[in-house]
Design goal:
It is a single chain. The chain contains two helices and 19 strands. The protein has a five-stranded mixed sheet, with no helix packed on it. Strands 2, 15, 18 and 19 form a four-stranded mixed sheet that branches. A hairpin with a 7-residue loop joins strand 12 and strand 13. Bound molecules: copper (II) ion. The site of copper (II) ion has 6 residues, from loops.
């Protein structure tokens, strides 16, 4: 065997082991812990910008719509922050269902999480034409019309990525699909609160991602059956 072939085999083995290493293995977690916290907005909450609805008004203009890029609750909590454990290799099972709805010409939720390799159900509850247009770089981009008679389509993502989402029919429709590397991804609610459950004991890198305010990270240690708290603050 010449040196070239040896290098080739070594490289192949390296690529194979890296791929295997990158994948998440779901299973049963006994005595899992809980990580919870509050993400807040530091400073004066920005005024929500009202959106102009000039198309399909009978369906789309039923409720007032405001831009969702920075949503701050009454107590200063920041909504739609994705909190996730980075790099965890094994733990609990994936969720059984991931759903994105187009409802009132709005993506619900604004930030939807779906596990890598899992099925995202995309609903059209409106009875009018929508279109799913993703601006992904790592995954294959989607640009799919969803006519009124197509109540449900589905999509899968092969790589972990934060993906911008739009509807070309309704310019104000904007959201995010988060293809999650593992099941430990959640979004914060109106009060900025989140809870991650079923976490195996260990020390992890916890990340906080917001669509316009950036990303932060912290280290968190969790004991078997224990609970840990991790808060963060974002400012513009
Ligand atoms: Cu639409």
């Amino acid at each position: 065997m010449n040196i070239k072939n040896i290098i080739k085999i070594v490289l192949m083995l390296l690529v194979f082991s890296l791929t295997a290493f990158a994948q998440y293995t779901p299973g049963t977690v006994s005595n899992g812990g809980t990580i919870a916290g509050t993400i807040s907005f530091d400073g004066t909450a920005p005024v929500l910008k009202a959106l102009k609805i000039e198309k399909d008004v009978k369906v789309c203009a039923v409720h007032e719509k405001y831009k969702e890029d920075v949503v701050v609750g009454e107590s200063g909590g920041l909504k739609n922050v994705v909190v996730y454990i980075d790099g965890i290799k094994s733990g609990k099972e994936w969720e059984t269902k991931y759903t994105l709805d187009q409802n009132g010409c709005w993506f619900k939720p604004h930030v939807v999480i779906v596990g890598v390799g899992q099925k995202l159900s995309i609903l059209n509850s409106d009875g009018i034409l929508h279109n799913i247009h993703t601006f992904s770089k790592l995954n294959k981009p989607l640009n799919k019309a969803q006519p009124k008679f197509k109540k449900r389509i589905s999509a899968k993502f092969t790589k972990a990525e934060f993906i911008k989402l739009r509807c070309d029919v309704h310019a104000w429709m904007s959201g995010w699909i988060v293809a999650a590397a593992n099941p430990y991804y959640v979004t914060t609610d109106e009060a900025g609160n989140y809870t991650l459950t079923g976490v195996p004991a260990g020390t992890y890198t916890l990340k906080f991602w917001h669509e316009t305010l950036g990303e932060q990270s912290t280290e968190v240690t969790i004991s078997a059956g224990g609970s840990a708290k991790a808060d963060a603050k974002f400012s513009s």
